[in-house]
Amino acid sequence: MNIFAKIIKLNDFAFKKVNYYSVLLEGNDVNEFYDFLNRMEDISEVEDDLNNLVFWIEKIGNDEGAKLIYFRNEADISDVTALPPPRKQMKLHSVEVEEIRLYCLRANESVVFLFNGGIKTQGMIKAKDCPNVGPYFKQANTITKVINQLFINGDILWTKDYSDITFDEALEFEI
Known about the structure:
By secondary structure, the chain is of the alpha+beta class. It has helices at 32-41, 47-64, 87-93, 134-153, and strands at residues 4-14, 19-25, 72-73, 80-83, 100-106, 111-119, 156-158, 165-167, 172-174. It has one domain.
C-alpha cells in the first residue's frame, strides 16, 4: 500500500549553516523526525543519547555544516546516512551517542532531511537487518529515492547559492 508524504521545513531547528527538513506521512499528526523525538523521549534509558544527538544536530547546524564526516554511511548502495556521527567524530568532541540512530538524507552541506529511527541493536548487525531500526532505515531509503527524483524532475529546486531548497508547499509525493 502506497502512502503520500509532504516535505516539512523544521522551523524549530533553524540554524546558521543547515536547513533541516522532514516529511509528514499521510494520516500522521507529526512529521517523521518529531515522531522519532517523541518516541525516544519516552524511553529513559536513552535520555542522554537523545540529548547528545540533539547536540550534534545543533552543532552541525550552527557550527560545522553538514559535512560528510558527520554522517554515518549505513549502506554502500544508499544515499541514506545516519546520525550520530561516526565514533571518531564523537570522540573528538567528547559527546557520544551509543544506542540510537536517526536516518537522514544529506542533500548537501546546507540541507538535510531528518527522517526517523530508533534504538539500534548493538554489535555487527547491519541497520537493514536490525529489528528495531530496520523498518525506519528501509523507509528512509524509499523516501530518499523519491526525494532524489523530485530534485531531478525539478519539483524541488536549489536556491542560487545552494544554501536551501524551494518547492511548492502543497507538493505531495507517493512512497
